[in-house]
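Hi V.,

Quick status before I head out on leave. The structure for the redesign project is tokenized and pasted below; the design run finished overnight.
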């Protein structure tokens, strides 16, 4: 493991700046997309502006996590920032929607390095007892970004060109990079080992084709789906064969199949699937079924963004009193408790009911996210800490993608089996969003949408129950808990 002799506060400031860039990117781009589409055209490619970023980020997370173990955290982080800023620069000059998608892909590659390596740097700098507090700060960054992003995006669009939503990343990223260069010092002596180029390429193709196949499930394109699924199968077989022969595999099967790590990452996958369902479908229910304003829908969802950092901060303070597994179980148990509120929603329900459910699920995710990350970081060998951290980040990203696809399929199934005169289309839903009065036809569509969304909320509840089941499979880790209960001075030695 690299020996980090650094000014910790200044390094953590750089880490938080790096995480803020990634966290704010999704919301600020979403705010600007209508203007971008108006200038560039290509409305049919709208979703790929977001999908390309997430695909690249998910595929490269594990790769860069492994490279951070080989080359050190600092050079990999600086490369990631450089790639991200290069993509941001090009995105501001995008002349068409395909060009914008390509630039977002570059940004996603950079984010795939920045996020896991930032968390690994925190693990290197702080002993487990202190680490939870810093992870709570990072969770707060995501919460603040969710609120600041849309506001900042709106101000930029009205004041200057939409290109500045990308170019604003450049000075902020350079400040973060400068902080790492000046204040993060690593021991130059590292283990020399070969890079698994074949495994890296096969893994990237396999993950990317899987996520594309999942995306194509909702696009009614059998040829595209079959191509992506076939490529995934071939790349997976090649990946397994290459990894079995690699001296230093990019993905260690022993690491990923280790029961505590496998179960903990499984919890991250299912919890992320349920939570993405909440963020995606609750605003639709509040606006179209309950006929509340977009502001009210946003406020109901904001309670989740309050609960998440609150849960993360509380779990950090409880590390020395309770086992990590107990905190993980508590967070998992809160997921179905919160999901019950959404299953019970009706058109006559109060938005407060949705807000309470969001708060509970967000708080539970906070109790899951930090203990799961620290648990994995303490289980793995320090030389594999980057890979272990990346496995958890990767699980969350894939969980979000899987959840959006699966729950979207459930919604579509519900709409097609709604009992209405005809299946409800996306165009009807768009028109309903812009309708101020409730026409007779609208009422039948709202009823069909209510039933379909209720079915989606039931699927969220089942995913939440699965989260509890997997959390129960996480074995007690007495050695890790003993480390956490040691005085901080002892751990830092």
């Amino acid at each position: 493991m690299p020996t980090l002799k650094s000014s910790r506060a200044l390094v953590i400031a750089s880490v938080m700046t790096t995480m803020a860039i990634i966290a704010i990117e999704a919301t600020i781009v979403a705010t600007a997309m209508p203007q971008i589409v108006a200038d560039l055209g290509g409305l049919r490619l709208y979703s790929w502006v977001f999908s390309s970023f997430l695909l690249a980020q998910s595929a490269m997370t594990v790769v860069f996590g492994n490279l951070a173990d080989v080359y050190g955290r600092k050079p990999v982080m600086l490369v990631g920032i450089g790639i991200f800023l290069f993509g941001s620069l090009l995105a501001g000059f995008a002349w068409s929607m395909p060009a914008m998608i390509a630039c977002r892909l570059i940004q996603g590659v950079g984010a795939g390095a920045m996020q896991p390596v930032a968390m690994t740097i925190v693990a290197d700098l702080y002993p487990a007892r202190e680490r939870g507090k810093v992870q709570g700060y990072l969770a707060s960054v995501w919460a603040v970004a969710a609120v600041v992003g849309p506001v900042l995006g709106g101000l930029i669009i009205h004041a200057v060109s939409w290109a500045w939503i990308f170019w604003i990343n450049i000075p902020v990223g350079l400040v973060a990079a400068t902080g790492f260069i000046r204040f993060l010092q690593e021991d130059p002596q590292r283990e020399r080992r070969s890079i698994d180029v074949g495994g890296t390429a096969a893994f990237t193709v396999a993950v990317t084709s899987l996520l594309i196949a999942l995306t194509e499930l909702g696009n009614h394109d059998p040829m595209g789906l079959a191509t992506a699924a076939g490529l995934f199968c071939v790349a997976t077989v090649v990946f397994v064969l290459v990894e079995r022969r690699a001296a230093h595999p990019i993905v260690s099967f022993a690491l990923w199949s280790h029961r505590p790590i496998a179960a903990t990452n499984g919890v991250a996958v299912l919890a992320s699937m349920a939570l993405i369902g909440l963020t995606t479908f609750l605003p639709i229910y509040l606006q179209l079924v309950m006929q509340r304003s977009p502001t009210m829908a946003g406020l109901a969802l904001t309670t989740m963004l309050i609960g998440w950092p609150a849960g993360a901060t509380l779990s950090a303070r409880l590390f020395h009193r309770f086992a990590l597994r107990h905190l993980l179980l508590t967070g998992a148990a809160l997921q179905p408790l919160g999901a019950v509120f959404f299953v019970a929603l009706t058109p006559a329900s109060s938005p407060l009911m949705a807000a309470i459910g969001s708060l509970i699920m967000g708080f539970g995710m906070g109790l899951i996210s930090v203990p799961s990350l620290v648990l994995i970081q303490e289980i793995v060998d320090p030389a594999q800490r980057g890979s272990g951290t990346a496995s958890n980040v990767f699980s969350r990203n894939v969980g979000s993608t899987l959840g959006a696809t699966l729950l979207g399929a459930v919604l579509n199934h519900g709409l097609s089996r709604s009992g209405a005169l005809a299946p409800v289309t996306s165009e009807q839903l768009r028109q309903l969003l812009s309708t101020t009065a409730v026409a007779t036809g609208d009422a039948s569509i709202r009823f069909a949408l209510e039933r379909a969304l209720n079915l989606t909320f039931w699927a969220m509840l089942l995913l939440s129950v699965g989260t509890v089941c997997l959390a129960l499979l996480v074995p007690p880790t007495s050695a890790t808990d003993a480390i956490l209960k040691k005085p901080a001075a002892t751990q830092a030695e």
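Above is the designed sequence. The chain has 19 helices and no strands.

G. will cover questions while I'm gone.

Best,
W.
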